[in-house]
Amino acid sequence: MKSFHFKRSQGFTLVELLVVIAIIGILVGLLLPAVQAAREAARRMECSNNTKQIGLALHNYHDTYKKFPQGARHGLTNPNSWRFALLPFMEQQAIADLARAAEAAGTMINFYPKGNAAHTLADYNIYTQPLINLVIPAYACPSSAAPEIYAYSSHFTNTGTQRINYTGIMGAYPDPAGRTSSSYQTQYSSFATNNGSLLINEHTAFRDITDGTSNTVIVGEQSGNRRFPTRTANYHSGWSGYGYSGTVATWNAGAASQHRFGSGVTALYHSPNPTSLGSEANADWDSNTPLTSYHPGGVQVLQADGSTRFMSDTVALEIVLKLATRDDGQVIGEW
């Protein structure tokens, strides 16, 4: 008589399956932070390369004109920021030419969507079209969670143009050397300064940076963070350097009558990524908007010699103010 032997089928029991799933979950939990860290490291390197490109463009501008561009300009005639001035030096000559052609045709490129008595919102639509929805990669930090383009509507900052993530440094407040003639109070209880390198209505040159180009920060990252996701020094747009009201040539400490903006530049008053702005004004575009980023631990900064550094959130405010000032004669030390 034949006997039959049944072989047990090979497979996972429920317990074994749960164990395998648990192991996979643990491995994913261990690997995911490493993958995220690697991606952020790559984004941070790209951001550093952006600041290097800006530095090269600034140096090429200086080689051509023997001075740095104005950080911002007062008035309605061509009030463009240093970011616009660098376009020809960042392989964007065609865009600059289109906007300049509009200016030559008699329409001021003021990036001001509400218009004015002479130039309406319709003018804005026609003559600033080259810059609407345009994104210059070197002006955008890949880690930023803020929208690349401002929403378009009839408001000051809603211009349909790029939210540029790097701001010019017009100096520091208070002045590290104690000078009282280097700042004035602006409309939103903040302080504009002229002790930095990219100024309102003024040019500087290498000869003016007496502290040394390796001891002076000329551009800083301002790409937002989780606490202040959209706070930037952009008043009318990422391109505008527009300022209004007050006489920029007058520098009186605490002169409250000097109400004005200078878009695209900031005077440092805080350490990077501050947890609080204290009693400072709530306006997103005041003169002391801090350096911010989504990079863990700090922000990218460009020094006047063209080199880039990662400035830690924990760096002493005293050092930040000294780095932002071109001619205070103060010893900085390691940072």
Automatic annotation (TrEMBL):
Stretches assigned to the DUF1559 domain = 36-317
TM ranges: none
Database matches in InterPro entries: DUF1559 (IPR011453), N_methyl_site (IPR012902), Pilin-like (IPR045584), Pre_pil_HX9DG_C (IPR027558)
Q: Name one Pfam family in it.
A: SBP_bac_10
Q: Which PROSITE patterns match?
A: PROKAR_NTER_METHYL
The record ties this protein, via SUPFAM superfamilies, to: Pili subunits
**PANTHER family (UniProt xref):** GENERAL SECRETION PATHWAY PROTEIN G, TYPE II SECRETION SYSTEM PROTEIN H
Official protein name in the record: DUF1559 domain-containing protein
